[in-house]
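Problem 12. The chain below contains 207 residues. Write out its predicted structure in token notation.
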Amino acid sequence: MLILPEETISLEKFKETVNDLNQDDGVLIRFLRARDYDIDNAEQMLRLAVQWRKEMDLDNLHLKKWNFPPHFYTSIKYRYFGRDYEGAPRVEQGLQQTIDCGSPGNVVIDLEGLSYSQATHIPTLKFAYLAFQTIEQCFPEILKAVYIINVPWIFSFAFNFFQPVIAQRTLAKTKVFNRKEEWHVECLKRFPRDSIVPELQPPMDIN
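Solution.
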């Protein structure tokens, strides 16, 4: 992860403060940025996140045998498909690849076909709310950009539900597109054609 020269002093001070946690510079700078370089607040946030990882036993998650519900892979599709022009990973409807690589990545959320009943399903909204909250608290600054495409009119209801737990820094990186033409133009600014899956591929006459 690129660390700017002006961040170096704060990073060195933070490393001394949380030396006992044995975190690499990439993790430390993300927590610092999330707390606007306030070392005390960043320390509190990081220690809570490390404690959460221990309680969830995330470091040994790969050793456990468990299965997602049968509908998971059809209802919540996500795929890693290439990188943007700056080398950041790009994931459609998922964060695991971005978290695994340890550096900020791009997430594309395609809402085509989202129905009223899906957008207003309270148990799903509550689950998603907790998921967003955990990501912001334990994996801050893991998103380089979020692109929400093919947005239906009902989207504003769900988005307003999530906004309270989404950090302002994340909201500033989020772009919403109602029309495919708008998304196609932005897509080609950010990603090579060979990293775009066929169903999201812009027409060849768009450059």
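Discussion. The chain has two domains: 5-63, 72-200. Students who got a different answer should revisit the alignment rule from Section 12.3.
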